[in-house]
């Protein structure tokens, strides 16, 4: 394969996707895939091709650049932080943009963002998307849910978070609905933050959702990770270190959980060891594989009842292709899976100098299209050139990054 020649987007879906109501159509309804084909040229059609940065030609380099490149000074977002109390005495930091003081609550369409493992609203993959969607001409609102202990937030009860326990997200969604009860909501989940939707079925308050780099099958993914040298000796230890750093910051409170031994957890050399000693025990699972199976979201794909777009790279070293739920996606007419041959884990960098993330184009197009279908007055019409211009102008941003 020659990635520099371009990586066409491949679409997997049910032959008969659901019909959605579209207010500006004469028939008032259209099949989801047909609508996406009209509104999202970066997903379907001759322009649906990802051209990777020539010096980042594979998933390992894309992933490394995403993890270690300096994104300071670009994609700057001004947040206003609020805290949501949980039933067990904990708290969750949520970051609103634009700040509530600048844009009081109203019925503006809203993006609810969920970050990846030990991440937060400061992550560049979040900021580059919000820079497009919350600024003119789209002017949507966004709120980033920072899971417990993440993004410089303190925990107030002896519990961090896990991929399989979604009650914190429900608590935050209830809070968001109280703040903006008439606002359409679309969730965008990155990596480990992309779990939840299938559990709710038709009860979800979301009108649609986007899953980016979702691991889907944690048992299979963990086994695949340790089959490779980089997976065993680079990626897994790196993820374990991130989790250990998070645990260390909150050691005083986490010591109250007598089910775990923090000293043993801090000796973990892999993410599986950390989840064995800390995560699985903290959340009451019998074994680490019990936790991984419970937290694997592919079980719930068939139960999704609103439009769901999943975007994954086939060379993602964290999420191998064998773990993608092709059959479940094709079974469920609400779901669409888009893959590219390359892109790495939350990478998809394009351009030679100061690479930008290609993925913000299809993600933005999908969100805008769904908001338009929900309300023809919400946002602006999808325009590939507009989104491209927004993405390429990020280096000139003057907003303030406030956590």
TrEMBL record:
Species annotation: Cetraspora pellucida
A molecular function (GO) term: acetylesterase activity
Chain intervals with Polar residues compositional bias: 393-403
Origin superkingdom: Eukaryota
Region (Disordered): 380-403
Record's protein name: 24574_t:CDS:1
Residues covered by the AB hydrolase-1 domain: 110-194
InterPro entries: AB_hydrolase_1, AB_hydrolase_4_sf, AB_hydrolase_fold, ABHD4
Family: Belongs to the AB hydrolase superfamily. AB hydrolase 4 family.
Catalytic site positions: 191, 316, 345
Matching Gene3D superfamilies: alpha/beta hydrolase
Biological process annotations from GO: medium-chain fatty acid biosynthetic process; medium-chain fatty acid catabolic process
